């Protein structure tokens, strides 16, 4: 094995710390299968060190003023921007991202720190009138040590989405990124320290879910959990949180619908549907990969989407699937879909021409003749696969929109904004975009149904990382009536 492969250690108490085990996990590029990094293979002992550091640092961090925390978070945002080229390089190497979308996603990571650094200065409780000789008020207090666990598909972006509001609220954090894409999270440790974040306030332990994730969420000093990932793991973490009676935010899977009516701007709808499979090759929880289209325009819409996807080049216009197991799972789902009667109007196979032998590329795909009970229509593919299903009436469109267990996001395209708004109110999903919409770090994000619990982004997330205390004081009788 080459000795020139960069090696990354945990980030604990303000410093890089090698794992107690001395072992490192190999991280390979999904673009060509080459070994790119070695990352600390954590254990419960490493978690213990990180949680202890976070616990020690919390009282002082929690006592800082919101102005002081605001300044540090704003400096972290600046640090991410200064280091953007390196961060892009790391996420492209280990996660197979394309440089332009990676840069956009990573700059949003900076926005989270700037945004929460800004709005925390408005964090305020209420005063409640309990009579003349009384002062009653509420305070938003931190939980203490918070665990943030993230998946592989948007590492620093998803990490920052939890870390920034948690730190802003006065908590300290132990982050466990995905074992497949850990490096930018570790870089954040360094960037945050250089920005003036005190030692121990942010700690990062890398490794597997079983050996790092489980001891972390089970640790008696961890008082709140923020998790992004699969429903299966979300359920497992939820069970531990229930047993421990601590709050947990779960941002889980999705199979989000895009509803297109005959009077919609079909070109705009086609572009949006194509982007759902091109951006990160569909490896986005909120990707709108179920195309529900009014029957009279189905063929035309699929043709327009096909025209956009046709000729898109692997490695230039869309990236690879992150790991071999994900890749194999996806090809298996496509094979099952074909057996069940679906047809690939576009793509449908592994991409082989002009990609490295071990490159994990799947053709951007549009499946037609899909029935709502097929596996590919119900389950998250997490890849560049759009399934098209026709509807004849608005009620039928809504029924189809609800034909999975999920409810993370939805999109509606129609010619009548009032109809779009009415549909947005009917659809069970945490975010609904009508005719494009605009979502950002300011707009709350999270699931209905099995897509999750709690909200990230926006002011809502800041409150998720605080607990509310009521203080009521009987004042001395000084003749006030
Ligand atoms: N938000 C979303 O919608 C996402 C959904 N997924 C779905 O999940 C599937 C698997 O992707 P993964 O990244 O492997 O998701 P995952 O849920 O297995 O892993 C997410 C994170 O949780 C950790 N983890 C795993 N088991 C754990 C446990 N028992 N306790 C604590 N932490 C644990 C992992 O190490 C990783 O850091 C994807 O195919 C996709 O369908 C994946 C990423 C994001
Ligand atoms: O922040 C967003 O709008 C989307 C986030 C996507 C994920 O968290 C995901 O794919 O897991």
UniProtKB/TrEMBL annotation:
<dbReference type="Pfam" id="PF00171">
    <property type="entry name" value="Aldedh"/>
</dbReference>
<keyword id="KW-0560">Oxidoreductase</keyword>
<protein>
    <submittedName>
        <fullName>Aldehyde dehydrogenase family protein</fullName>
    </submittedName>
</protein>
<feature type="region of interest" description="Disordered">
    <location>
        <begin position="1"/>
        <end position="31"/>
    </location>
</feature>
<dbReference type="InterPro" id="IPR029510">
    <property type="entry name" value="Ald_DH_CS_GLU"/>
</dbReference>
<dbReference type="InterPro" id="IPR016160">
    <property type="entry name" value="Ald_DH_CS_CYS"/>
</dbReference>
<dbReference type="InterPro" id="IPR016162">
    <property type="entry name" value="Ald_DH_N"/>
</dbReference>
<feature type="active site">
    <location>
        <position position="251"/>
    </location>
</feature>
<comment type="similarity">
    <text>Belongs to the aldehyde dehydrogenase family.</text>
</comment>
<dbReference type="InterPro" id="IPR016163">
    <property type="entry name" value="Ald_DH_C"/>
</dbReference>
<dbReference type="InterPro" id="IPR016161">
    <property type="entry name" value="Ald_DH/histidinol_DH"/>
</dbReference>
<feature type="domain" description="Aldehyde dehydrogenase">
    <location>
        <begin position="23"/>
        <end position="471"/>
    </location>
</feature>
<dbReference type="InterPro" id="IPR015590">
    <property type="entry name" value="Aldehyde_DH_dom"/>
</dbReference>
């Amino acid at each position: 094995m080459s000795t020139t492969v960069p090696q990354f250690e945990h980030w604990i108490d303000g410093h890089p710390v090698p794992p107690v085990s001395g072992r490192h996990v190999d991280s390979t590029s999904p673009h060509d299968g080459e070994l790119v990094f070695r990352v600390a293979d954590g254990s419960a002992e490493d978690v213990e060190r990180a949680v202890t550091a976070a616990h020690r640092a919390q009282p002082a961090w929690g006592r800082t003023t919101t102005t002081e925390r605001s300044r540090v978070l704003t400096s972290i945002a600046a640090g991410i921007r200064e280091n953007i080229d390196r961060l892009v390089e790391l996420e492209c190497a280990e996660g197979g991202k394309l440089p332009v979308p990676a840069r956009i996603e990573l700059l949003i990571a900076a926005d989270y720190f700037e945004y929460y650094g800004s709005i925390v200065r408005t964090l305020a409780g209420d005063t409640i009138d309990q009579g003349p000789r009384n002062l009653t008020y509420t305070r938003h207090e931190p939980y203490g040590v918070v665990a943030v666990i993230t998946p592989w598909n948007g590492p620093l972006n998803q990490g920052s989405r939890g870390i920034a509001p948690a730190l802003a609220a006065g908590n300290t954090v132990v982050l466990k990124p995905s074992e497949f894409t850990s490096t930018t999270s570790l870089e954040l440790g360094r960037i945050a320290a250089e920005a003036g974040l005190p030692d121990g306030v942010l700690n990062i332990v890398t490794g597997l879910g079983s050996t790092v994730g489980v001891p972390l969420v089970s640790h008696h000093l961890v008082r709140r959990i923020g998790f992004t990932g699969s429903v299966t793991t979300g359920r497992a973490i939820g069970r531990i949180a229930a047993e421990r009676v601590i709050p947990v935010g779960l941002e889980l899977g999705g199979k989000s619908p895009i509803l297109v009516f005959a009077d919609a701007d079909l070109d705009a709808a086609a572009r949006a549907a194509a982007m759902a499979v091109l951006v990160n090759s569909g490896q986005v929880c909120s990707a709108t990969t179920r195309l529900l289209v009014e029957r009279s325009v189905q063929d035309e819409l699929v043709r327009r989407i096909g025209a956009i996807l046709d000729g898109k080049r692997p490695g230039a216009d869309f990236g690879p699937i992150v790991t071999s197991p994900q890749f194999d799972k996806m090809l298996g789902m496509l094979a099952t879909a074909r057996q069940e009667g679906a047809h690939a109007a576009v793509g449908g196979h592994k991409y082989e021409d002009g990609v490295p032998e071990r490159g994990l590329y799947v053709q951007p795909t549009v499946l037609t003749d899909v029935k709502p009970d097929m596996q590919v229509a119900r389950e998250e593919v997490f890849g560049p696969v759009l399934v098209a299903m026709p509807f004849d009436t608005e009620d039928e469109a809504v029924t189809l929109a609800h034909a999975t267990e999920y409810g993370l996001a939805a999109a509606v395209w129609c010619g009548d904004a009032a109809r779009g708004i009415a549909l947005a109110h009917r659809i069970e999903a945490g975010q609904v975009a009508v005719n494009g919409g605009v979502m950002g770090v300011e707009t709350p994000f999270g699931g209905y149904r099995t897509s999750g619990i709690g909200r990230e982004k926006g002011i809502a997330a800041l409150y998720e990382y605080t607990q509310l205390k009521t203080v009521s004081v009987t004042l001395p009788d000084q003749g006030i009536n």
